[in-house]
Design brief:
mainly alpha, two-stranded parallel sheet, 3% strand
Length: 332
């Protein structure tokens, strides 16, 4: 599964859910959590080349002495800015997480998230469980079902590092029940929670070797994304699903791949450029080519030329080859 595309779509979807549609969303990335600077630089290079959604920003912290990302930023002068500030980074993060009324559930929850993140980075499951339990307690006291469901989702996401799939599934099932109940009571923000929970449930099944169950959950995620008005997210969900079905059920694989392509062509060029649609088009083109349906292949070529350029297939093949043996950076 291409988690890079999923990340872009989640950030874009979150930004579009804000009341101010032009307010940027900033994803801050810390150097201490990166296991390989070279791979991280390659990842940033790929993101900048492919384009980041409008009103989405990346904030990357570098070390003043090493300045790892200077060469990268020089290559992308028009889309990057560098600032050198004397700053106690960890101290600043801790202060930001605790700003506001200390009795506020939101402030207390941010503190828990900070501690949970540090526990995960330190590979300390005991501390993660301690702060995860506190986060659930704080969210429950708020009386907001969407907030409580989000706490389940965040805690479960961090447990992926420790491969605690039974605990993950328990949290996700609880979060799903809360989000569904919140939605039934009129909390529209629960729609995003439900879509994300299905994605995590599918990922848990997939990591645990239950591939068909995972594919079914990805399909359901896509259906709900369309139902709830986040149709572009269905592309990634169905792409992940049909790639699993490819080895399990050729009939379902072909039907879902065609369904994903037909759904994709309903979106604008700009929307498709920040999605996995080029991979879907590539797979569908390859499938039709094997069936000798050359007229349909030419239609796909013409359509994709307008979106990704005449060498769109070569770009997809290169990206697949370049990332085949690389580690993925999954931000949860």
């Amino acid at each position: 599964a291409d988690t890079d595309q999923l990340l872009m779509e989640m950030l874009h979807s979150f930004q579009q859910s804000l009341s101010d549609k032009k307010k940027p969303v900033v994803l801050a990335m810390m150097p201490k959590t990166v296991s390989s600077v070279n791979e991280f630089t390659d990842w940033l290079n790929d993101r900048l080349k492919q384009g980041i959604p409008e009103f989405v920003r990346f904030s990357v912290f570098d070390y003043e002495e090493e300045r790892y990302f200077d060469d990268l930023f020089k290559r992308f002068k028009s889309s990057t800015k560098s600032l050198a500030l004397p700053i106690d980074l960890q101290g600043a993060i801790n202060k930001l997480s605790k700003m506001g009324d200390p009795n506020s559930p939101e402030v207390q929850f941010r503190t828990c998230m900070q501690e949970m993140g540090e526990a995960t980075s330190a590979n300390n499951l005991t501390q993660l469980d301690k702060w995860g339990a506190k986060a659930l307690e704080i969210a429950q006291r708020s009386g907001k079902k969407g907030f409580f469901a989000s706490a389940h989702l965040i805690y479960a996401g961090m447990l992926f590092t420790f491969k605690k799939y039974e605990q993950i599934n328990y949290l996700l099932e609880g979060g799903l029940r809360l989000a569904q109940l919140g939605l039934s009571e009129g909390d529209e923000t629960c729609k995003v929670n439900i879509i994300q929970i299905y994605a995590y449930m599918a990922a848990s099944k997939q990591h645990n070797g239950q591939e068909v169950e995972a594919a079914d959950l990805y399909v359901r995620q896509g259906e709900l994304a369309i139902q709830y008005g986040f149709g572009i997210q269905a592309l990634t969900a169905w792409w992940q699903a049909y790639n699993i079905y490819q080895k399990k059920d050729q009939k379902v694989y072909h039907a879902l791949m065609e369904q994903a392509y037909q759904h994709g062509i309903t979106f604008t060029t700009q929307e498709l450029q920040h999605s996995c649609f080029s991979y879907i088009a590539f797979d569908y083109h390859d499938y039709l080519s094997n069936l000798k349906q050359m007229d349909k292949c030419r239609e796909i070529d013409a359509y994709m030329h307008a979106i990704e350029g005449e060498n769109w297939k070569e770009k997809v093949e290169k990206y697949k080859n370049d990332t085949k043996h690389k580690k993925r950076f999954l931000f949860i």
